[in-house]
Amino acid sequence: MHRYRHIVYAMSKLLCLAVSIAACSSEDCPINNTVAGKMVFYDQKNRPVVINGILSVSVMRPQGDSVVLNQKSNASELVFPLSYTHETDTFVFDYNGGMVYDTLYISHTNSPTLVSVACGTAMYHSITKAHCTRHMIDTLIIKSAEVNYDERENIQVIYPTAD
């Protein structure tokens, strides 16, 4: 039996290593680790609306403008980023290639949040105020102020009812 002690010892170490590896669970980190809000378009009777024509949306920031949505036809919603360093973001809605514009202002607080040790931190936001010009849009309603990985509807964009 003493002859096989080093084999038994090595096998027990391998078994402990295998059990340790199996016991570690992989962390479910978000595949897309970008926190973004969601706007959904409605009419005044709370019916979903599709923007007839072409919609482009840009976010205006001191370090430069970024296109959020580029010439989307029949848009019904918009996923939008919020700034990590500023507390107000300005979005310009361009309808049909510059024929009409609306400007949306979204104020928010920023909260660095530890998602997990494996996934690191993320910047979560809480929307405090939303208002806009009223060329095409009637009003904005904050549906859910918390912006994180949940992909929930944060802002309702209300357009005038056609009928």
**Biggest sheet character:** 6 strands, antiparallel
Number of strands: 10
Instruction: Report the principal-axis shape.
Output: elongated
What is the typical, i.e. mean, pLDDT?
85
Read across the widest sheet, the strand sequence of neighbours is: 3-2-5-6-7-9
List low-confidence stretches.
Answer: 16-25
Helical content, roughly?
10-25%
State the secondary-structure class: mainly beta
Distance between the termini: 91 Å
Percent in strands: over 45%
Discrete helix count: 1
Task: List the quaternary state of the chains.
Answer: single chain
Q: H/E element string?
A: HEEEEEEEEEE
Radius of gyration, taken over Cα atoms and rounded to an integer in Å? 25 Å
Describe this structure in words.
The structure is a single chain. The chain has 163 residues and is mainly beta. Helix content is 12%, strand content 49%. The protein has one helix and ten strands, in the order αββββββββββ. It has one helix spanning 5-23, and strands spanning 37-43, 51-60, 66-75, 77-80, 88-95, 100-116, 120-132, 139-142, 146-147, 155-159. Strands 3-2-5-6-7-9 form a six-stranded antiparallel sheet, with no helix packed on it. β5 and β6 form a beta hairpin. The longest helix is centred in the first third of the chain and has 19 residues, at 5-23. Residues 16-25 have low confidence and may be disordered.
